[in-house]
């Protein structure tokens, strides 16, 4: 999996690409330039969950010259990224917070009001994990009250239901849980299933055994 889509979501959120598109389509451009937006390069990025997906995102984010820190249950031995055992401290010390952990009892609503307020009015939240990682009503009120700069969301608590107030906000980018859904990854996944089945019936080692 290439995991380019989370980077696309970050850029779309910071650079307001979707609102820009609407601005051109509805003719507003003729009345003046689009507002200034935020640059991605050089930002401090906090990643929640440095597993397979979190690490893959970190690698790509590094290419933008961003400083990376992370929060997870335990410190990872094989990385120099700065570790925060407390997610509130991570949020207080980054500008872009990316949620990429798996959903467990512990990580349900891990992004609550305290975390959102620590991220603050210049902070941007990106969720490519699961909807339930975020306390959605708190996110809605933070955005409406200007306590958070913006959010890029690929997942929602009750998808395909999306909280109504999000629909009217221009500092929010909403994706229909597309994750890694591309023609290429769908084909790669289908090919892998077939290769595993072939190996199974030929009594060969499986390509991706479940351990
Ligand atoms: C056109 O779209 C932009 C971006 O969504 C929005 O800010 C603006 O208010 C719209 N203008 C009109 C006239 O609909």
Describe this structure in words.
The chain is an alpha/beta fold and 211 residues long. The protein has helices spanning 5-15, 17-25, 52-62, 87-92, 113-119, 136-144, 164-167, 183-201; strands spanning 44-48, 67-71, 82-84, 96-99, 124-127, 150-153, 172-174. It folds into 2 domains: 2-180, Rossmann fold, CATH 3.40.50; 182-211. The chain is built from 8 helices and 7 strands. Strands 3-2-1-4-5-6-7 form a 7-stranded parallel beta sheet. The structure holds 2-acetamido-2-deoxy-beta-D-glucopyranose.
Layout of strands and helices, then pairs:
Layout: H1 5-15, H2 17-25, E1 44-48, H3 52-62, E2 67-71, E3 82-84, H4 87-92, E4 96-99, H5 113-119, E5 124-127, H6 136-144, E6 150-153, H7 164-167, E7 172-174, H8 183-201
Parallel strand pairs: 1-2, 1-4, 2-3, 4-5, 5-6, 6-7
GO molecular function, one term: oxidoreductase activity, acting on the CH-OH group of donors, NAD or NADP as acceptor
Keywords: NAD, NADP, Oxidoreductase, Signal
Protein name: Glyoxylate/hydroxypyruvate reductase A HPR2
């Amino acid at each position: 999996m290439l995991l380019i889509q989370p980077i696309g979501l970050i850029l779309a959120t910071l650079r307001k690409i979707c609102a820009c598109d609407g601005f051109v389509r509805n003719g507003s451009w003729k009345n003046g330039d689009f507002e200034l937006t935020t640059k991605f390069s050089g930002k401090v990025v906090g990643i929640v969950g440095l597993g397979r997906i979190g690490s893959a995102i970190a690698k790509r984010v590094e290419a933008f010259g961003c400083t990376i820190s992370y929060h997870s249950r335990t410190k990872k031995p094989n990385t120099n990224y700065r570790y925060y055992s407390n997610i509130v401290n991570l949020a207080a010390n980054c500008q872009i917070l990316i949620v990429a952990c798996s959903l467990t009892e512990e990580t349900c609503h891990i992004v609550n009001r305290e975390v959102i307020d620590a991220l603050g009015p210049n902070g941007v939240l990106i969720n490519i994990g699961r909807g339930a990682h975020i306390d959605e009503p708190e996110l809605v009120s933070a955005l409406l009250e200007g306590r958070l700069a913006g959010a890029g969301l690929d997942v929602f608590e009750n998808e395909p239901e999306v909280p109504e107030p999000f629909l009217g906000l221009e500092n929010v980018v909403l994706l229909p849980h597309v994750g890694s859904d591309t023609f290429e990854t769908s084909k790669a996944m289908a090919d892998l299933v077939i290769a595993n089945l072939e190996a199974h019936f030929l009594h060969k080692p499986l390509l991706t055994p479940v351990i």
